[in-house]
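Re: weekly structure request thread

Next one in the queue (366 aa):
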Amino acid sequence: MKLSDFDFDLPDDLIATRPVKPRSAAKLLVAEGDRISDAVVTDLVRWLRPGDRLVLNDTKVIPARLFGERFRDGETGRTSSKMEVTLLEPKADGTWQALIKPLRKIREGEMIVFSDALSAVLTAKADGQAKLAFNCEGDAFDEALAEVGRMPLPPYIAAKRPADLQDHQDYQTVWAQNTGAVAAPTASLHFDDALLDLLKQRGVEMTHVTLHVGAGTFLPVKVEDVTTHKMHAEWGQITEKAASEIAATKAAGGRIIPVGTTALRLIETAARDGGGAIQPWVGKTDIFIYPGFQFAVTDALMTNFHLPQSTLLMLVSALMGQERVKKIYDHAVQNRYRFFSYGDASLLFPDKNEHELKTTSDLSST
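Done, posted below.
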């Protein structure tokens, strides 16, 4: 299985740099086996049945991009160097793994000042990454970070524009709760309160799980034989309540539909460790899903459109089949769907889906 098998041509102007307003007005490509339909996200109620269960990732993105200065006293006086820091993940000892630009201009033991309330000392650097010890922790750290930090937009957006205050709202789900992600579960960004109400009226159930999405989600695959690729590990948790809800839905004949690849990877990790059955789970997962993977829990998937040659595209191909995914992405490009984190969405059923063609107005009046 070659990396080139997962390549496709994507016009640059289809890469979204802002989400549509309202969130649920984004386009939705629905693939039911080999059948493709064009819709909008609000139309989810047409394809989901009473008793289906959406699995939602409730991780909360931190404003992980920081800009500060390193000061150094020397023979010629005091000098400074501007530093850009992207936090990656907290460590057990209270420090943070981070990327620093330019890393070569700071030594171990030196401090970066971000504001009067927030600074950090470089305690170690290796393999192009740094370890930072901040001057505060807990609520004080969260408050200081919220004051000066910017949302860590994906590289393909950050290359076109800087993050701004609007991204603090746009790059966060409406149900975000557990702080720890440095990238958003982007399929979930399409949901707003109005859509959630419609789904509840439809009888669609929802379960929250947590997977803290790491910056590694944007790392390219560098091996030609994709089966030898090593995934980054991300921390996740499925509570006993969440596992029970998912198991009950499966037992009753309902469908489990994760919203986003992060939720899918987490529930499939728990099922794999549980011998094929969903169970409470906590820890780090580095599960790599590519064609040939046997899904234990997932019946369908809602997800955005992913980068060429990415592990996320491989995951979608594992669920739908490589040839189907090529047709889906050809259709998306030809019909000018918007791609990546702020782009449009897809709803993917591996098999033919017999759905009721109820309109949104029908449902809102029931």
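The first strand starts at residue 27 and ends at 32. The longest helix spans residues 261-273.
Next request, please.
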